[in-house]
């Protein structure tokens, strides 16, 4: 019996090309495919699929899955993501293991950022 293998993480977005630009310009994802309704992006072995939705009731600004990223400069990453439409979800925190921040992209998905010490 073959084991299951991970395929991708899927997020629903109102504007797929805008979301693809957010991840490619803000977090250096490679865009493999992008149309008005579907995009496939990659960062290392992580594959992120973006699918267009039009029903406002599907995604609300509640809790969703969180994508967590290690970054080399949290301040410049936060600035770049905010310029692309993200919002900080609380302040940047200075923990013993490094700086951490939570952000929400334009459709409410949560991104965690970590800059190790």
Automatic annotation (TrEMBL):
SUPFAM superfamilies for this protein: Glyoxalase/Bleomycin resistance protein/Dihydroxybiphenyl dioxygenase
Glyoxalase/fosfomycin resistance/dioxygenase domain residues: 8-101
InterPro entries found in the cross-reference section: Anthracycline_SecMetBiosynth, Glyas_Bleomycin-R_OHBP_Dase, Glyas_Fos-R_dOase_dom
Domain of life: Eukaryota
PANTHER family: GB|AAF24581.1, GLYOXALASE-RELATED
Protein name per Swiss-Prot or TrEMBL: Glyoxalase/fosfomycin resistance/dioxygenase domain-containing protein
């Amino acid at each position: 019996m073959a084991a299951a293998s991970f395929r991708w993480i899927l997020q629903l977005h109102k504007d797929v090309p805008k979301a693809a630009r957010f991840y490619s310009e803000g977090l250096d994802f490679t865009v493999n495919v992008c149309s008005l309704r579907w995009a496939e992006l990659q960062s290392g072995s992580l594959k992120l699929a973006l699918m267009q939705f039009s029903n406002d009731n599907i995604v609300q600004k509640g809790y969703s899955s969180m994508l967590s990223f290690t970054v080399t400069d949290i301040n410049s990453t936060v600035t770049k993501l905010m310029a692309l439409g993200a919002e900080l979800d609380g302040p940047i925190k200075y923990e013993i293991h490094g700086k951490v921040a939570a952000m929400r992209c334009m459709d409410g998905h949560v991104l965690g950022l970590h800059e190790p010490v």
